[in-house]
Specification:
The complex is a heterodimer of chains A (441) and B (253).
Chain A: H1 14-48, E1 54-58, E2 66-73, E3 77-81, E4 92-96, E5 102-105, E6 110-115, E7 119-128, E8 132-136, E9 142-146, E10 150-154, H2 161-177, H3 190-221, H4 226-238, H5 243-266, H6 281-306, H7 309-317, H8 322-351, H9 354-359, H10 386-396, H11 404-436
Antiparallel strand pairs in A: 1-2, 1-5, 2-3, 3-4, 6-7, 6-10, 7-8, 8-9
Helix pairs in contact in A: 1-11, 3-6, 3-8, 4-6, 5-6, 6-8, 8-11, 10-11
Chain B: E1 6-14, E2 22-29, E3 34-39, H1 45-52, E4 63-70, E5 73-74, H2 82-88, E6 89-92, H3 103-113, H4 119-132, H5 136-139, H6 152-165, E7 170-174, H7 182-195, E8 200-204, H8 208-214, E9 217-222, E10 225-231, H9 232-237, H10 242-248
Parallel strand pairs in B: 3-8, 3-9, 6-7, 7-8
Antiparallel strand pairs in B: 1-2, 1-4, 4-5, 9-10
Classes of the chains: A alpha+beta (441), B alpha/beta (253).
The structure holds adenosine-5'-triphosphate and magnesium ion.
Chain lengths: 441, 253
């Protein structure tokens, strides 16, 4: 009997199995990313979109009723934010459900007030005249608030979809566009956002020329000796060093070493008050530049190595010098690889927190690291950073449960920032690729 | 015979500790002549060409002994600038290696290196080079297209145009017609014939008829040595060596 041309081995052939394994891995990775994004969005939602205000009361007489918004519901207990309307009460209250027979209602006329000086308040709306807003607290006491001091107020339990959306948008804008004061009542992440972006851009300015030139030297001039191999291996391994070590190094070298020396030479008149001799924007950027230098060097070197020998020889054969070949042919062709290095560097730098805590990031900086005169950056100033905000809010603040939504919201902003910065570099690389890469297939 | 433009004396080359790739090469190239180099694959033809413009020095560990005189001066002299040497001795590689740039920029590359800035002159010289390489008609409307979109044979003519654009005195052609159709090949041969008036040409080829057609002198290489070097008619009709005869008649190993 002849075999013919039929498929062998039934439905499940090895080829298909390989394909399915690969596809499975891809689906798993994508699902992970998607889940992360969804969790970020869901958890950050209370920070921005108006949540209902509830009223909990118990049949037992010794338990006072509670009015406020849910922060976390763990099943056994509810953590409630009841605002600052009664300054004697704690803002965050933990309601144990056990044995309380709690009854939850959703008062139609519950009101949320954002007070300019005191903060968030919840109550039951009584009425408003030209100058005052009247509401009662959970115990039934009436409060009158001067409308001039109220930022905004609304009735969260009877919002239309449009109102709800516009409040969300306003909250997001506030969150992105306003600075927070020190402490948990902070409004937005604007200073941290600016700090993060400025720091990453400054780092880019330091790391790209340095990394690219170093890679060109390593690849083009250093030859293939024992020493070169040693240095190359060293550089590759630098990328694996934990970032906090770079932080300690930056503190010792830049802050105390270089910064201290600058102070002694240029700012001797105001010593012992340090100018550059303490953590600041410049030192943080330099530390991160050092941290991401190996990434840029490795990516650039790989790009250089991918350029075919034959076209380099063609350039020499036309009478080009080494420098001309480099500048006219090799460097333009390596530009996309350099962009890849930049992308990796940004991705790494924007997410670092540990080293930054040592060399310039603080929980609260009174002003942005920008100034009106040249060089437009307050290089010696401490600054705020999204990553550090997350760490600080999530683990260091006194009422970290209340800050949970804020933590996730900040994380979401950091996520978007990193994606945007990367997107910029990817777009740049794409343009360069189209221009130069045709023959490098 | 007047003073040869290039004179190779006792040249030997090795790419490292292994056996030498070229051995005891003696060769004199007459001005305004075409010299064909024939020989089996791996016999060292390309290596010999790469010695003539010192391109072989880019290969790490390459070791050269002996000497090459160009216009009576040693090309390995301490005061010789290899980039100037390479401007005067142009080369077309065995495999077409256009730059990943536009067709125009490919041909203009050498001109720009030589300091030519005027767009008008560049345009003119690029057109002339492309015309000479028999490529102009095919690319005149798409000079800004990437060189990569050209076919293999078109790329081969492009790199020839690139080499002759800078008007070198000596042109080293390493199998310039290996992937061309008979008509383009003929054009290249005509080009060689025309260029001979002004230039000195060395052409490596595996095509015996072509060697016989275009060259005045022919050298047969075997295992890194020049077995026989004579004027083309003599070498093809009346070779002194048995190995040469075997090779050109196709009876070779
Ligand atoms: N860069 C190099 N390093 C080491 N050996 C080399 C190198 N280039 C060439 N060789 C060796 O030198 C010898 C001659 O090579 P060459 O390219 O000169 O031959 P060829 O005559 O041009 O052959 P073909 O007709 O196939 O092009 C070969 O044995 C080759 O392996
Ligand atoms: Mg060859």
């Amino acid at each position: 009997m002849t075999q013919g041309l039929d498929k062998q081995g039934g439905i499940w052939r090895f080829d298909d199995a390989v394909m399915f394994f690969c596809a499975g891995a891809l689906v798993l990775s994508l699902a992970g990313l998607l889940i992360m994004l969804v969790i970020l969005l869901v958890q950050a939602k209370p920070q921005w979109s108006p949540m209902p205000v509830y009223y909990w009361s118990s049949e037992r007489n010794d338990v006072e009723p509670v009015l406020g918004q849910v922060v976390v519901n763990t099943g056994a207990a509810i953590v409630v934010d009841q605002g600052v309307l009664q300054p004697s009460d704690p803002r965050i209250l933990r309601l144990n459900k056990q044995g309380l027979q709690l009854v939850r209602t959703k008062p139609e006329r519950a009101v949320l007030v954002q007070h300019g000086t005191m903060g968030r308040m919840y109550g039951v709306y009584q009425g408003v005249d030209d100058s005052h807003l009247a509401m009662v607290d959970r115990r039934g006491l009436e409060h009158r608030l001067d409308l001039g001091e109220v930022d905004y107020w609304y009735l969260p339990n009877q919002l239309s979809a449009f109102e709800s959306l516009s409040i969300t948008i306003r909250n997001v804008m506030t969150f992105l566009g306003q600075g927070g004061g020190p402490g948990a009542g902070a409004q937005g992440v604007y200073p941290a956002l600016v700090g993060t972006v400025v720091m990453v851009l400054l780092m880019t300015i330091f790391v790209m020329p340095l990394g690219v030139l170093a890679a060109i030297y390593l690849h083009e001039y250093a030859g293939e000796g024992y020493l070169t191999r040693l240095i190359r291996t060293g550089v590759h391994n630098l990328a694996a060093i934990p970032s906090v070590i770079y932080g300690v190094f930056g503190l010792g070298l830049f802050v105390y070493g270089v910064g201290g020396e600058i102070d002694r030479v240029f700012y001797a008149n105001i010593l012992p008050t340090p100018t550059f001799g303490e953590p600041g924007l410049l030192w943080a950027s330099l530390t991160l530049a050092l941290l991401t230098l190996p990434v840029v060097i490795v990516a650039t070197e790989e790009g250089l190595a991918r350029i075919p020998r034959s076209i380099i020889e063609a350039s020499y054969a036309l009478g080009a010098t080494r420098a001309e070949t480099l500048l006219k042919l090799v460097v333009p062709l390596t530009a996309p690889a350099m962009m890849t290095g930049l992308i990796l560097a940004i991705a790494r730098a924007a997410g670092e927190v540990a080293p930054l805590m040592l060399v310039g990031v603080v929980e609260y900086a009174p002003s942005l690291p920008l100034q009106a005169e040249f060089p437009f950056l307050a290089l010696d100033q401490k600054f705020m950073h999204l990553g550090y905000q997350i760490y600080d809010l999530g683990f260091q603040s006194v009422d970290s449960t209340a800050a949970q939504a804020r933590v996730y919201a900040t994380a979401l902003v950091l996520f978007v920032i990193v994606v945007a910065l990367n997107g910029l570099a990817v777009a740049l690389r794409h343009r360069l690729n189209r221009r130069y890469q045709d023959l490098l297939r | 015979m007047t003073q040869p433009i290039i004179e190779i004396k006792d040249l030997a080359l090795s790419y490292g500790p292994q056996q030498a790739v070229l051995n005891n090469i003696q060769l004199s190239l007459e001005r305004n002549s075409v010299t064909a180099i024939i020989g089996a694959s791996g016999s060292g033809k390309s290596s010999l060409l790469r010695c003539l413009n010192r391109l072989v020095e880019l290969t790490p560990n390459a070791r050269i002994t002996g000497d090459i005189m160009f216009e009576g001066e040693s090309i390995f002299g301490a005061r010789v600038d290899p980039t100037i040497l390479r401007q005067r001795i142009g080369m077309v590689f065995q495999k077409p290696n256009p730059f990943p740039m536009s067709i125009f920029e490919n041909v203009a590359y050498g001109l720009r290196l030589a300091g030519e800035k005027s767009p008008r002159v560049l345009q003119e010289k690029v057109e002339q080079a492309l015309l000479a390489a028999a490529l102009w008609d095919e690319v005149r409307d798409r000079l800004d297209a990437q060189a990569a979109v050209l076919s293999g044979g078109q790329q081969q003519r492009l790199v020839i145009a690139r080499a002759i654009a800078v008007e070198p005195e000596v042109l080293l052609l390493d199998e310039p017609a290996s992937s061309l159709d008979p008509i383009s090949t003929l054009r290249i041969e005509e080009l060689i014939y025309r260029l001979k008036q002004d230039f000195t040409i060395v052409v490596v080829t595996h095509n015996m008829q072509q060697a016989a057609r275009v060259s005045d002198w022919a050298a047969f290489m075997h295992d890194g040595t020049i077995v026989e070097y004579d004027n083309t008619t003599t070498l093809f009709t009346n070779p002194r060596e048995v190995r040469t005869e075997d090779y050109i008649t196709g009876r070779f190993g």
